[in-house]
Amino acid sequence: MALGARDEWLDRIVTACEEVLAHAGARRTDSTRRILGAFLTQLPSPASPAEHSILRAFLVEVSLRWGHADHWAYHTEFPDADCAEDPSTLSLAVWHHGGDDGQSTFAEWSRSYIAAMERVHPRYRAVELRRELDADFAQPLLLRGLAQDRGVSVRCLQRDFNELTGRTIQQYVRDRRLEAAVGMLKGGSDKVEWIANVVGWTSRKNLNRALARVHGASPSALRSGERRSKNR
User: Fold this and answer.
1) Which of 63, 174, 207, 221 could form a disulfide with 217 if both were Cys (CB 3.0 to 4.6 A apart)?
2) Which residues contact 139 (CB under 8 A, 6 or more apart)?
3) 57 close to 87: Cβ distance less than 8 angstroms
4) Is pLDDT of 68 > 80?
5) What's the pTM value of the predicted model, to 2 decimals?
């Protein structure tokens, strides 16, 4: 292989790049942080200086493609957004000053790109959080950890999220859990306790309380109502 690169090694990089780029759109459910982090774990370790150079070239390419796709996905979602700078171009400076280790430089580019997006586009932080919550709404909600991951206070994160969605982070997660729970209650016969655990509540009582507050109904009432509509 030219420059001593192995076919299998190159195939793994190309596959990893394709998986990252396949998510570059406004409808993806995972956050940019998670996708880029997963991408890094898939990269092989170069065994020669030539392979280091090839890896670096691939990663510069995916940085450009990812950054521009993500940037324009944001503008597709928010046509009124105005920015004088392209975060992808801004963050490419990392590649000019980075070391020979392409993997660590790409990790630094990821951090730089996300920071630039959040600075240039105020709603980006909330968009990313919404994507993460959509994918993992059943996980325990730890506001302090979510804020620390983004380098802001809980108050700042709540403000940004409320401006985007009209709801607090807690309300959004509750509604996503309820949406999933109602669908499972109406579409199957699984035990309510199991459904409650699957969607993120620690007990049936918590699910019952949320259903009563938002929908004014119990799990049994939702199920009986669905059966009646099917029998008509």
Assistant:
1) 221
2) 200
3) no
4) yes
5) 0.79
